[in-house]
Amino acid sequence: MRYSKLFGKTVKEVSSEIKLVSHRFLYQAGFIRESVAGRYFFLPLGIRVRDKIMRVIEEEMNAAGAQKMVTPVLHPLELWQETNRAESVGFELMTIEDQRGGKFALGGTAEEMMVDVVRKFNVSYRDLPFNIYQFSQKFRDELRARGGLLRVREFMMKDAYSFHTDEKDFASEYESMGDAYSRIFERLGLSTVRIESDNGYIGGDYCHEYVVESPVGESRFLMTKDRSYAAHEEVAKFERGDMNPDEKELPLEVKDAPRGPTIADGVKLYDQPAWRQIKTIVFFTNDEEPVLVCLRGDLDICEVKLGHILKGKKFRSATREEVEKLGSVVGFVSPLKLKCKKIGDLSLKTVKNFYTGADEDKKDTLNVNYGRDFEMDELVDVALPPAGCKSEDGQDLSEGRGIEVGNIFQLGTHYSDKMARAVFTDSDGKDKPFYMGCYGIGVGRTMGTVVEVFNDEKGILWPKAIAPYQVYLISIGDVAEEAEKLYEKMLSEGIEVLYDDREERPGVKLNDADLIGIPLRLVISSRTLEKDAVEWKERSEAEAKEVKMADVVKLIKDYYLK
Amino acid sequence: MRYSKLFGKTVKEVSSEIKLVSHRFLYQAGFIRESVAGRYFFLPLGIRVRDKIMRVIEEEMNAAGAQKMVTPVLHPLELWQETNRAESVGFELMTIEDQRGGKFALGGTAEEMMVDVVRKFNVSYRDLPFNIYQFSQKFRDELRARGGLLRVREFMMKDAYSFHTDEKDFASEYESMGDAYSRIFERLGLSTVRIESDNGYIGGDYCHEYVVESPVGESRFLMTKDRSYAAHEEVAKFERGDMNPDEKELPLEVKDAPRGPTIADGVKLYDQPAWRQIKTIVFFTNDEEPVLVCLRGDLDICEVKLGHILKGKKFRSATREEVEKLGSVVGFVSPLKLKCKKIGDLSLKTVKNFYTGADEDKKDTLNVNYGRDFEMDELVDVALPPAGCKSEDGQDLSEGRGIEVGNIFQLGTHYSDKMARAVFTDSDGKDKPFYMGCYGIGVGRTMGTVVEVFNDEKGILWPKAIAPYQVYLISIGDVAEEAEKLYEKMLSEGIEVLYDDREERPGVKLNDADLIGIPLRLVISSRTLEKDAVEWKERSEAEAKEVKMADVVKLIKDYYLK
């Protein structure tokens, strides 16, 4: 490709709204353009990278025995109603009606569609297992779209769905998909951590995210040093050690408390650590039931865990008036007096002689002990793991932050139980629901993540496997004829070349080469031609060298085989 | 691939609603399944064919210098408003609103989107020309979806858009794209006719369809024997020969006409050919203006031509009451008395002594002559070319019917004039609008067309280039071990094999092989093994032969190179 004819050239200016380095470089170097927030054009350079990523995914999915197919983008809404997801997915789901009154969801994930096509066949145990996958455009009506390819509203996704007779058969596919994911991300140059995660609105009993560590990632996770345990903060289990096991339980005492409503205000008044307090929050569920949630003062509520405890009901914080109507005062609510559903974190059992509000303004109750003075309806894990916590088996957990690039879900019979005729005929002649799993990779997000990881101050450093071209060829000075010859020779040898044939200053061309980030840059000039050579510079190396013109094709091929 | 593990096996039963042979075989053989009318799943066999078609298109587009990219599927509706197409495309356009109030069209064609991305760059004459294309899912909210892949509501389309400084530069790209289309369809095994066609809501001055002749096609066209002229009936020009040049013009005469309202009723009453009558139809435009359209009685109105004459206004037939209000009677309307806009076909000048209604019930006027007795506001081409007509230069036109698989459009400055900043900087430093063209191929429709053309009573006959697999391997009897060995050997040689490893009767396997239509079938049985051979049968040949086991891989490779 001649750079002079390439649609989508580099630009210098970047809007100050572009914050992420991946967004900035993909924009500047001419890989993507925003249509509207969260919806992107992939320009010719960008689609080459995206296609290569898709090819890697496709090869590994096929090698793992999965079968490619594709569903329509518009899903009959009645399928989503069959599994109650039209409701639970809520605002993220975009729906549309055609002129004949047909209602559709714009596909964001395709569990129902895949079950629907499978149930059109009378599948028997002999046909199972199989794993079917597609690449298709997905839609999520997100309120916020972060810049660039990391969180978008429309994106290319690989989504796979496996069908099994039973859990055991599924378990081996789950591992096989995990292995395929490891190979895929490795080939893309990405080092991933596999973490336990929450299944959101997908359903099922367990799932894992593949996360690339990055400070701009949205996934905070905890892991042991040997990574034998790694989990998203929303599901991570952690030890709640006893804080003061040797203290004696003291008698209850109510006293004036001239403090503000926050935990910090209590710490200041009593000069005691935060764990000494009970943190109490009043919520209302969407069916208007008040729920009191208590945990140790140094911990924070994990809303995802609370959501599961409330069995998927939506909830919101109570207003000041609602707290007063229940008989307490904001900042001084305690679990001792209020009559409502009470959920406590396991940490309530790790402190002797808590203090807490006395359900009156500016009054606290001291020496409160779980079991002796109050109990909760449920004592469960409802806290976010704090920095420096330990795993349940006592190992140190370190914190990580990363970008989710893929996920794998056990679905079990979550969908096949809800959908009519989602069954196979077993060897005993009986109809049984499919046991299922599903497996996703966001293609664009993976591309953005690669750039987040592989860049320097000058631009992108594409991994060899997914670089838009293999060689960036620059001619400097009056050497067009020799440059053309080399360009044509490389093309005839099947080498992918971006040939910067512009009449531009050398500095402009060299800067663009660094910005675009093709792994190998070749410069041909009168100086190199004197020696019958070209300058060879790898994007990841600081120094250039010269190689003989006669060797260059072979060296390129060797370089890309490495 | 082992057939036992393939998702999407053959079925015997076909719904009586499935009429087209391509629909029936693609369904029965397990290539596609309908989600809802006009929206299809491509099953694993189907996606392999679709992918191969896309690869052929991509290779030829790239070879012609076009650059692949991709736009979002959701187009900001304001872009379609910028060109007034949100209105004119009308009901076919699906629109949707996101939760932040953003309005979008589901892309059906992407002229505005491509202009929008191009205008984000400050393009100069040096950057031109370029041709950018994409493969993406397209949506058309059609009222009727024919069975199978021939007319659908959602489909994969290749759409390309070229940008030029001027018409001359565009003209060479138009020819280059035409050549690329010829190569594409030739590689897919399809013989196409290139016909002049109507541009519908795309705009521009001229365009061509690539049509595959087929009795189930929706495009009726006319062509000269040497195909130097070929045009869709909606745009075809034809000679209107004088019917009775030697007759003398006779005096007008009004007389009782005890006939019904149709042309046939007149023919019966007067025992004269249909051309002797004036056919008169009253329309109302969408701004409620009455329009009288007249043509020779043996011809039919071409509504597409009329639409252009009315400058894109929508129109409908007048009701009986409206005709009476205008001062006439249905079945007896004439161009002589009514006061309204009058459009006549050129054929009105080819008959002497027409008869027509007298604008009173059961009364006709005889011996009506154009020029002497009446004139029209416009005398233009508003008729469909009838069977047996001649071209304007007097050659016989034969009728053809076919399936439109691709089209190429001159757009000129149709879009760049309407859209702000759709300009390039010319060598004189001035901003000028792009001169554009666009070029589409429906991938699924092309696949359906291939099956319409290549089939017999047993099933499909895929052309080699796009067959889902290269070899259908069947084992008969107790030869699993040898069959496995051959299967593995072919895989290791890079041959695409569908291995029918089922424990099924030979007849079932042989029938499925014919139905699925892979070009080459190999059968391994104890009988062939005795001779250290396999049975070799090409789908297109009646007879099988035997080939030596040792030669089979080489023969397959040779066969596919042919």
Tell me what you see in this structure:
Two copies of one chain form a homodimer. Chain A is α+β, with helices and mostly antiparallel strands and 562 residues long. Chain A folds into three domains: 221 residues, Bira Bifunctional Protein, Domain 2 (BirA Bifunctional Protein, domain 2); 132 residues, Alpha-Beta Complex (YbaK protein), CATH 3.90.960.10; 93 residues, Rossmann fold (3-Layer(aba) Sandwich). Chain A is 25% helix and 30% strand. Chain A has 14 helices and 33 strands. In chain A, strands 3, 7, 8, 9, 10, 11, 12, 23 and 26 form a nine-stranded mixed sheet that branches. A five-stranded mixed sheet of chain A has the order 17-14-15-18-21, with no helix packed on it. In chain A, helix 1 packs across helix 10, helix 2 runs antiparallel to helix 6 and helix 2 packs across helix 10. The radius of gyration of chain A is 29 Å and the shape is globular. Chains A and B meet through strand 1, strand 2, helix 2, strand 3 and strand 4 of A and strand 1, strand 2, helix 2, strand 3 and strand 4 of B.
